[in-house]
Amino acid sequence: MLHVNSSRSISDPSDPDAQLTANNGEYLVNISLGTPPFPIVAIADTGSDIIWTQCKPCTKRLFDPKSSSSYRTVSCSSNACNSLQSEGSSCSSDGSVCEYQVSYGDQSHTQGDVAAETLTLESKTGNPVALPKTVIGCGHDNAGTFSPKGSGIVGLGGGPASLVSQLGSSIGGKFSYCMVPYAAAKPTSTMNFGTNAVVSGNGVLSTPLISDPSQPTFYFLQLEAVSVGSKKIAFQGSSIGGSGNIIIDSGTTLTLVPTDFFSQLSDAVETQVTGGTKTSDPEGFFSLCYVPDSSLKLPPVTAHFKGADVVLTSDNIFIQVNDKVVCLAFYANDQLSIYGNVAQQNFLIGYDLPKQTLSFKPTDCTNT
């Protein structure tokens, strides 16, 4: 943990939360930075750590550090800078300011200054929750596949720079989210931190969260198999992560699996689909696609995590490419296996870091 923000009790009813919005393959979270608070919309990403936003002198509607009375750059000798070594921290040319540089799996990148700033979240009471001296990145060189609706990333991973780690004991190591399907008429839901993030009640399934000290950012799970109808396909996944073989990542759209497993899964789905018309992806990216008419019937699909058999719906299995095409929302990748956000839609997903558990609860996320 980089700092302690607050002495609030974890049972305080004003535990923080934030609006989460579905947006074309990603989920955007609303926060504010600075004094006075400046609203920021950024990608919610459990697969990375640093919190960053685009800053002036970039040319979009961006956060201006000069307009905030609480903004402070971080020195190269500070603990915060040292803690960001995994984020490529370095010193400015004159040696006075800590800088960061991060690249993501989709080849996007950001670099800029490391700073301490007040980050503000909302709460159920309607009163904002201010978190002073939160360590952030103030990006000056940002490029890649970032949405024009967003202006940065809120890292929610397990490393010391993430929002979850910086909130620390004030949230008891708990957070949750519920992702609405991309095509939902109401695209928003709520991300909760602290006591409001506890997932309980009928239908809750829990599986171990597995940490890998060599990759503290990632939340590893153990996926044992996936069933398509009566066919159960054993899953090996990534060889890294100790007993964990797949990470859960809110910032990746598709579920990425090894090529051999993908071939078996795709064949099983294609064999058991009834009705509908098979078609091609207009962009040539996906390999198994259908015309989404009323005759299309999909087989039941279950993800068998250790201790948790998660039954997926059609929204978790297929992604809508356009009005006339849906495609299998899995993709072959022989590096890191990732349980992406399409597979997580319409589940209330809770992380309990002290107990090292991840909970799934089937939920209509438009009602959260």
TrEMBL record:
Keyword field: Aspartyl protease, Glycoprotein, Hydrolase, Protease, Secreted, Signal
Annotated ranges, domain Peptidase A1: 27-361
Primary site of residence: secreted
Gene Ontology CC, one term: extracellular region
GO molecular function: aspartic-type endopeptidase activity
InterPro entries attached to this UniProt entry: Aspartic_peptidase_A1, Aspartic_peptidase_AS, Pepsin-like_plant, PEPTIDASE_A1, Peptidase_aspartic_dom_sf, Plant_Aspart_Prot_A1, TAXi_C, TAXi_N
Superkingdom per UniProt: Eukaryota
GO terms classed as biological process: proteolysis
Active site positions, chain numbering: D45, D249
Protein location: Secreted
UniProt record similarity statement: Belongs to the peptidase A1 family.
Protein name stated in the entry: Peptidase A1 domain-containing protein
Species assigned in the record: Linum tenue
Lineage: Eukaryota, Viridiplantae, Streptophyta, Embryophyta, Tracheophyta
